[in-house]
Fold these 4 entries.
Entry 1:
Amino acid sequence: MVALRDAARVRVAVPDARGGDQSLRVTWHADRRVYVLSTWRGSVCIASICISPDDAAALADVLASTAVSLPLVTDEPEAATA
């Protein structure tokens, strides 16, 4: 994940968990008070949507509340039980 920050804009790029060259970019546009969520294939934007701060808060709530309930995954094999 890559995060960039300047005075007027905050941006994060998240790679597709399945691999490949697709990513999701989220950018805050303070001048318009909208978040732009865009889907990228390499360096080409293939889709985008603008959402309000209220909708962004609802999306963040879903992401945060489900992420904390996910089981911890490690690379270590499970111990055998007797």
Entry 2:
Amino acid sequence: MRTLFLSAQGAATLISRTGLAHCIRGMVNEIDHDFKRWEQFDKSARLASHSAQGVIEIMPISDGQTYGFKYVNGHPNNHRHELPTVMAFGVLARVETGLPEFVSELTLITALRTAATSALAAQHLANPAVRSMALIRMSASSRSPVGLMALGARDGGKFESGQASELLTFQARFLERLLRAWLDLPA
């Protein structure tokens, strides 16, 4: 049996072929399915190693059949070394044998998972009158968690994937700057 590997380029190619919206919808469905079987998971706390330069974390989980972990770092000053500030990869292994079945670069996939989780949360938490919504990723600081700006409309079709969204993006960037100034956060 061989271990499958998905590189960042492979993930980008797969998303391009499949379509971004289709990929996110599929992730929403899988995440929703996993939330419905939440009690089946052995959820361990993430293991973190903090330093003056950043943090490295391991996030383990198992459902008794499959064991997985995600390795992710957060190093705000990596841009000085021409490296990403966040990088991630993951491993899935069969519990019965310990065989690693799948290894994947997860930096891009994590961004899509965040979008899918946000969309799922919006579906469950949005006012039932909302028929159309826009979700915009926000990052106030390299040292703060990623946020989400959510807008809703009672009329369907007000927010569409092909729609020009420059004004919404501008509002999100403005809010990021406002939060940085208000909370005295670094860029």
Entry 3:
Amino acid sequence: MMTAAIAAAAFPAAPFATGAAAAPYLAVDAGFTFERTAPGGVLPVRWDPCAGPIEVRLAGAGWASPDGRALKFAVRAVRSASGLRLRRAEAEPAHIAAQDWDPNRSRGTITVSVTDDGLGRASSAGLATTYATGRGRSQRLAAGLVQIDAATSRQAPAWVRAQLYLHELGHAVGLGHISDPRQVMHPQLPPLQQWDSRTAMPQWGPGDLRGLQLLGAEAGCLAPDKPVVQQLRVRVVRTAAPRVRIVAKWSTAEGARLYRIRVDPRGQKGRWVAVDRPRRTFRALPSRSFQVKVRAVGASGSGPVTAVRVRLRSG
């Protein structure tokens, strides 16, 4: 998030805030933080620089508009400093509201939406949200949404607008806020009285640059993400008592080549069965209490076990 630190009533100044950063990494005099960190608070959650290009999609404005030119400047600056392969995608005329953004359908994309609807906070000129996949230290950024307040952008001169886009795109690739006003990731726009006093386009500070290096190509490729089974559901169909038939279904895990499933009746261990689709029927189970376990298998190995315990009622 970047706040507009100006005197106009529509854009009041806001105190320093770290936004949604959780336990940000901050080295002594480093001049940067990470928006997200893996367990332990040191390793950043970042995009995989080897996974292919990251599409930057502009919504609510065209690439030839002032907002589009500011975003193009920011894309070039992030690409140059981090080595991440950001690529401009076709612009969309309508903005995308936060509640309409589906990160699962936006994998590999940073959506930048210019909106007149406000950002929910009176002082916000911009707001960034990131979506990560994986667990623990295998987390990686998979999608991002940047929202730009159109009213602030219209009033700002070109260099302030460029700094706003640079700041929010920095969030989208993993940078957090820093209290040093010399860095682009400082959470406030320049004061209003400075808006007409310069024309030079903004540049990353030394802390910004070091943070981007640790988030980009210099940090190396991430290990392939192991597929994770989600939304496991078990339906029980009674047959001749006390035996039952169950149907297990689950969501397709990205990157899965096959699945392994087993049913453990109470006090026993079943055997793993390989299936090639997210569904399996088990017949004539002798127990009234059992656990269904499923794991996906991909090129990087087996993912974690997802389990559901089932207890049948009497009668």
Entry 4:
Amino acid sequence: METAYADQLPDQFKLVLPLERRIAPARVVWRSDRELGLALTGPWRSYRESAAAGDIQMAEKLNDEDRATALAALPAWKYDEAAGAMIREFKFSSFVDAFGFMTKVALLAERANHHPDWSNVYDRVAITLTDYEAGGLSERDIDLARAVDQLVR
């Protein structure tokens, strides 16, 4: 984990609550000589509202041709047309190996700010990728699938 010092923090940034899909502009404020706080400088907005205001750029849904090309390069992933999602199942030698894999995927997903739907039963992990904001598969799903595939090679 990197250490951030107060003099390295930006004056303005976006505060994101991924589970609630909400964003607000914020700034760092000193509460005392040793304590920092956050102050909102604007309203909380949904991702779509923030994109409409130009605060963030949302991912775009892949068109049929781009989706087919991307999925062809990821043969272990299956496309579920009804869900607009790509799915892959993994089998490991133990629960510990499966959970270790999930931990690595969680770190990749957090870094990308794009989180999978997934499940784990003992030595098996199922991952479903779709971009709810885009309304189907986006380049973010493809990028995360590639990164996940690198973990199991």
